[in-house]
Amino acid sequence: MSSGEPLLKVQDLGMDFGGLKAVRGLDLEVRAGEIVALIGPNGAGKTTFFNCLTGIYPPSAGEIVLNRPGQPPRRLNGLKPNRITECGLARTFQNIRLFPEMTVIENVMIGCHCRHRAGILGAILRPSAVRREERIIVEGSYRILAELGLAELADLAAKNLPYGLQRYLEIGRALATEPVILLLDEPAAGLNITETAALDACILRLREQRGLAIVLIEHDMRLVMRLSDRIYVMDHGELIASGAPAEIRANPAVIAAYLGEDDAA
Amino acid sequence: MTYFLELFFSGLTRGSIYALIALGYTMVYGSIGLINFAHGEIYMIGAFTALIAASVLSGWGLNPVLVLVLSALAAMIWAAAYGVTVERIAYRPLRQAPRLSPLISAIGMSMVLQNFVLLAQTPDFVPFPSLIPKFAFLAPYRDILGSSGLVILVTTAVAMLLLIFLIKGTKLGCAMRAVAQDKEMALLLGIDVDRVISATFAIGSVLAGLGGVLIASHIGQINFAIGFLAGIKAFTAAVLGGVGSVPGAVLGGLILGWTESFATGYVSSDYEDVFAFVLLVLILIFRPSGLLGRRVNRKV
Amino acid sequence: MRVAALLKRALFAALWFMFLTLPFLAVELNPGQPAVVWRGRNLLLVGVAAFIVFGAGGLLSRRWRRRREAGFVQASGPSLAAHPLACRVALIVLSLSALIFPLVFSSYQVTIMTTALIYVVLGLGLNIVVGLAGLLDLGYVAFYAVGAYSYALLHRHFGLGFWAALPVGAGLAALFGVLLGFPVLRLRGDYLAIVTLGFGEIIRLVLENWNDFSNGPSGIANIPKPGLFGLHLSLADEQRYLYYLVLVLALVTVLVVNRLRDSRIGRAWVALREDELACQVMGIDKTRTKLSAFALGATWAGMAGVLFAAKTSFINPASFTFLESAVILAIVVLGGLGSTVGVIIGALVFSLLPEYLRAFASYRMLIFGAVMVGVMVFRPQGIMGVRRRSYRGVAGGGDE
Ligand SMILES: Nc1ncnc2c1ncn2[C@@H]1O[C@H](COP(=O)(O)OP(=O)(O)OP(=O)(O)O)[C@@H](O)[C@H]1O
Ligand SMILES: [Mg+2]
After folding, report:
1. Average pLDDT over every residue of C269-278
2. How many Å from the N-terminal Cα to the C-terminal Cα in chain C?
3. CA C61 from centre of chain
């Protein structure tokens, strides 16, 4: 699993907002099929890191390189978000950002968009190739919904979905872009204990069945410790520790910055 | 040189009117983040109210200066009333709606107001009485700055000073700034947000109404459609300065006034209105935050 | 007790509206001597009307709220579009009656109907931009002008006929759509609205002032009607022929717009409208998608423009004011942003009602405006409502 080059390599990444250095000097690696957790107190810069990775903010410093097996390495910084998604990164949002008026299945179909080509003329004339493509999109989307247990709700408007299921739908939409790395920004936020447990299983299944690498931002320590192969810890924009769950649990800097106050609370 | 000065002052007078109306856009945008598309119509309402009031009062044989003051007062009162009503009907119910909805209802409101005046009064241009007396001391400089120009400059300056005092120095101004920054927080702190927004509309409308009277007595004729162009230009001024910034609105108004005045004076008068539109399109494309506005980076 | 409060509210509203309209309705400016004429009765009418409207409105909204609390009315409101079959039947009936229309009615009626159909095309075109892609384009009429002037000028200078001008006009309009689209790509909704408005006005002002190019405000006359295989047609037949052409264009527009809406591109438009950033992060090229919406919307306006020029045989810049954009927008809003059938109905209602109810004609714009406000406040989904389509059938029985 850990042979050769890492799938994603981030070096010395920095992101400034005016005077505020939200991320600085961040080094991070993701290997194929690995679940990596990124933790840290509120405002540590975790979401900002995702935003840099996915091209929402252009990083002010550093390198992001994606190294898919069988393909030449690609430098991701400076690319537009949609190009990065095409390269194989997909994400969910901390504050859910579905397309509220569209149906559940349409949300997933939007995820499929970048893997298909039908254009305006195709849409107007509808040759058989386009119809076939459309069928592939619909079937693929149904499959993803079924995998997440949402198939029954396919025609519901996304805004009418219960909160917990909206989080799943976000994951489904991300899966539809056929990523190699899935970035989950606090997927368990707002979920109760049973729901979190289900999510737990779901994430593991995604890794097993799709061979995805997953980067997980999460505040729920139990979930993080259970799932992740490695953990990175951020505070004030900087990496303060990284390593296996057991090491992190024992790391005094982490306890001081994060776990300590969490446990006390 | 005289020609230059004439253009300079004509730009200044124009610009200060634009600034007066632009302040309304800026204040409303600051408080509810919405372009009040019907704001130009409020200005038109102000001008018409003043005209009607002046006609009535002159008929009663009042002294012209008194007529001027009273009709300006009427213009401001009714402009404020219309502004508040527009907010109540077309914007308040849509505060949680998608962004396009209040914009569309604002366009609808502006059509309603224009056609209301058209139907209730007249589709034609009507002459506006020259109520502003000719000042003797300005006679030697008549080519450069007329007495109506002077009145406009002085009035706008006073109005703006009052506005700045209101925003910086009163409780209402403080509440307005709070609402502009964070409506929910303001609500939690016990500020009556609806009231404050109404007050914002009222103040912006008062300024627009005042602008209406001033420009009408300067140009000498009005009709139901004057609000459209004036609205666009004032909006240009607001954006130029940076929507949401009060000094920005003033700066934007003056720049626009001078641009128009010099461009029509030295380049071509055929395209008078095109300059404003071109300026507007250019700023929005290249510097949407305006000259004095802060660039906001929206968080994800 | 409750009723008393209601009455008080209605009374207050009545007084308030009487106060608002006092200078405008109670006084009439008179060009002659006395300068003003009093007409207090109007004021009384306003008061009574406001009292009734607000009283009844208060009662209704109370009943409605109670019913909603009891769970009778769905929060999102009922949607006529919920019956696809009914829609299809309605569409077929409409098309058939449109086909026989010119054989039954006078040529005056045919002209009116032609205008109405041009509005259908314009409404459907704008619906792509505003309804689907969520880009509030207030300068839509500029593309209409581009189409109309392309035909007029190409005919005048190069003797180009209608059939050659139709694709050229559409193409030029699309080009202008892209030209406008490029700079406004980054702009947020309301700024975009203002820039497009400015763009529309610039085009009109240029047409008005650039005499050498467009003949200025006096416009261009003698634009020929389309020919039919060199046959000589009578005036009435020419009108009928034009009517059928516009009808065909309208039907093609319906077909194309529907197909686009249900396509990969159409979904991308809607997603863009819903959440631009999420849309990009899901792999959709924002630039491409926005430009395609602008260009396609403009194409239809361009074709409608060519037909308009052929129909009136005279065009001048006065036909392409902001008001025209506002009317088309009103049609789209009334019909329901994104709904095809709604837009058709909206276009027909808005262009036919003032023709057939003459008394109503001078109140046209007032009512349009009021409708825009009313629809936004009370029924944002428009008369038809929009229902997203289901994809259960498409999956080919695999799941479900
Ligand atoms: N667009 C922006 N402009 C300015 N500052 C920003 C922006 N986005 C984020 N920040 C700042 O960067 C810092 C890091 O924020 P970020 O959202 O990445 O934290 P986080 O680790 O995701 O926290 P949380 O656990 O609460 O989600 C914060 O101080 C935040 O205010
Ligand atoms: Mg975060």
Report:
1. 91
2. 55
3. 29
pLDDT at C384: 67
User: Model pTM?
Assistant: 0.86
Task: Count, in order, helices (H) and strands (E) of chain A.
Answer: 11, 10
What's the rounded Cα separation, in Å, for the pair C127 and C253? 11
Chain C nearest CA to B140, separation (Å) = 34
Q: How far is A48 from chain B (nearest CA, A)?
A: 8
**Domain span at residue B213?**
2-136+154-286
Ligand 2 centroid to residue A50 C-alpha, Å: 9
**Given pLDDT bands bounded at 50, 70 and 90, which one contains residue A185?**
very high
- Cβ atoms of C146 and C125 closer than 8 Å: no
Inter-chain CB proximity B111 and C368 less than 8 Å: yes
Give the type of residue at B73: L
Q: Which amino acid is at B278?
A: V
**Kind plus residue range of the DSSP H or E element containing A16:** strand A8-17
pLDDT at B149 over 90: no
pLDDT in tens, B95-104: 877 777 888 8
B33 or C316, which is more confident? C316
What is the Cα B232 distance to its own chain's centre? Answer: 10
For residue A26, give the nearest of A185, A184, A235 by alpha carbon. Answer: A235
A157 neighbourhood in chain C, CB within 8 Å: 388
Query: At B207, which CATH number?
Result: 1.10.3470
Is ligand 1 within 6 A of the CB of residue A50?
A: no
Locate tokens 């992740």: which residue? Answer: A228
Examine residue C174 and state whether it is found in any structural domain, yes or no: yes
Q: Do C136 and B104 make contact, defined as CB atoms within 8 angstroms?
A: yes
CB of A43 closer than 6 angstroms to any ligand 1 atom: yes
Structure tokens at C305: 């423009």
Judged by DSSP in three states, A103 sits in strand
Q: Which domain holds residue C109?
A: 94-378
Mutation pick for ligand 1 pocket among A47, A60, A236 (CB with most ligand atoms within 8 Å): A47
**Cα diameter, chain C:** 84
Cβ pair B117, C369 in contact under 8 A: no
Number of domains, chain C: 2
The whole-number average pLDDT for the span B141-163 is 82
Query: Is the CB of C286 inside 8 Å of chain A's CB atoms?
Result: yes
Q: Are B153 and B18 in contact (CB under 8 A)?
A: no
Tokens of B54: 């002046």
Chains in contact with C, where contact requires at least 3 CB pairs less than 8 Å apart: A, B
Same domain (yes/no): C111, C234? yes
For residue B297 and ligand 1, the question of a CB distance below 6 A is answered with: yes
The token duo for A207 is 């890794």
Q: Quote the CA–CA distance of B196 and B175 in Å, as a whole number.
A: 7
**C-alpha torsion angle, residues B39, B45, B51, B57 (rounded to 10):** -120
d(CA C178, CA C171): 11
Q: Is the CB of A11 under 6 A from ligand 1?
A: no
B141, part of any domain = no
